Amino acid sequence: MRARLTSGLLAVALIAIAGCGGGAPDPMSLLRKAKATVDTTPAVHFHLTSSGVQGTGAVITGGDGDARRPDGFAGTLGVSVAGLMLGVQVVSVNGTFYARLPTQNAFTRADPAQYGFGDPGKLLDPDTGLSNLLLLCRSISSGTGDRYNGEELDEVNCSLPGAAVAKLLTSADPAQPVTATFGIDPNSDQMRRVVLTGPFFSRTNPSTFTLILDNYGENVTVTQPPTTG
Questions:
Q1: Fold (CATH) for 26-214
Q2: pTM higher than 0.70, yes or no?
Q3: In b/e form, how buried is each residue of 142-180, taking b as 16+ CB within 10 angstroms?
Q4: Where are the alpha helices (DSSP H) in 21-135?
Q5: What are the angstrom distances between the C-alpha of 173 and each of 102, 144, 199?
Q6: Which of 129, 24, 111, 114 minimizes the C-alpha distance to 68?
Q7: Which residues pair with 101 in a beta bridge?
Q8: Which residues have a Cβ under 8 Å from the Cβ of 25 and sit 6 or more positions away?
């Protein structure tokens, strides 16, 4: 009798546990929550790396910096020019982009396109920035999940319009879609990692950018730098 009772209780417990399981998170819900979190943070730190980058002229290869709402950005971006790697200090504020090469003593006004990327001051723009890409996802599916610095991340895979990504980075063929994986911390709804693969510098040879976002809400100030002239 006791054996049958114990088996029955075990079966009931297993059924209860199964009934409490929430299953896999809804990928569209993850994207919406992540966008809301990005759109409400006053500032965030970013770290950019790349692989398979090749092309003529200036091409961005990586960088580190801070973005502050509504249009501030300051950091150092890695740029390859004819095979020569340069660390370019950049500041974008109030819609104006400034750059300082290692050989320069002060910043100069510039067009970010000449360095192979879009205006980083728009990174936190809710309508045209990074978070805007989340709601442009097509062919959405749940990823396998991953970890970053001990955090468990829920992953969402999707396809993005190349023209939208080109506004933030660059593209040799904006008509081609970009493959994306978003890694989101389900506890904080913070978008932690973004992996983008597409024809950024070559129509036939795709390259990959990996963007890490952390220090949400950090206390940073972005001001106009001293310039020459």
A1: outer membrane lipoprotein receptor (LolB), chain A (2.50.20)
A2: yes
A3: ebeeeeeeebebbbbbbbbbbebbbbbbbbbebebbbeb
A4: 27-40, 130-134
A5: 31, 29, 6
A6: 129
A7: none
A8: 142, 154, 186
Phi, psi of 134 (to 5 degrees): -60, -35
11: left (phi over 0), alpha (psi -120 to 50) or beta: alpha
Alpha helix stretches (DSSP H) within the chain: 2-20, 27-40, 130-134, 162-168
Per-residue pLDDT of the chain (229 residues; tens, 9 = 90+): 444 445 554 444 444 444 444 566 899 999 999 999 999 999 999 999 999 887 667 788 899 999 999 999 999 999 888 778 889 999 999 999 999 988 888 999 999 888 778 899 999 999 989 999 999 999 999 998 888 888 899 999 999 999 999 988 888 899 999 999 999 999 999 999 999 999 998 899 899 999 999 999 999 999 999 887 5
In the numeric block, which tokens belong to residue 200? 């950024």
CB 76 within 8 A of CB 64: yes
Q: Nearest-CA neighbor of 209 among 122, 136, 130?
A: 130
Pairing label, strands 146-148, 108-109? unpaired
Can you give the residue ranges of every domain in the chain?
Answer: 26-214
Token pair for residue 192?
Answer: 């932690």
Q: How far apart are CA 8 and CA 52, in angstroms?
A: 58
Rounded distance, CA 166 to CA 172, Å? 9
Q: How far apart are CA 186 and CA 184, in angstroms?
A: 6
